[in-house]
Amino acid sequence: MDRKLRVLILCTGNSARSQMAEGLIRHVLGDRVEVYSAGTHPSRVNPFAIRAMAEIGIDISGHRSKRVEEFLDKDLDLVITVCSDAEENCPVFPGRVKRAHIGFEDPARATGSDEEILAVFRRVRDQIRERLLPFVEQQVEALS
What we know:
Elements: E1 5-11, H1 17-29, E2 33-39, H2 47-54, E3 78-81, H3 84-89, E4 98-101, H4 114-143
Parallel strand pairs: 1-2, 1-3, 3-4
């Protein structure tokens, strides 16, 4: 393959799902994928997302929430929305950008004790690993 697949993971707050997806993709496919994440209404990286990723050896503590507008002029191959709000409000990207939607529940809405909330983040993290990661791997194979 001549170049890396350029992927943007898009969510509303760019605080949990998209951040975890970015971290997983970079960790597993970083030699073949340039990955970014952004939000339609960015906030901050959720501390529970940082903890859930640290448990599997992936450090996203240095990530920051970014506005989707930062990527409108970037030459992307694929934009993946991970929540329905982002899918509905995804801007049009120039060029021949492929779009996909792979939705996950919002772990940031979890309530209860810290352990109960962390359990939801773990579940969503694992779903991202099981559903989104193989999809990106397929796109990488198609590019090569």
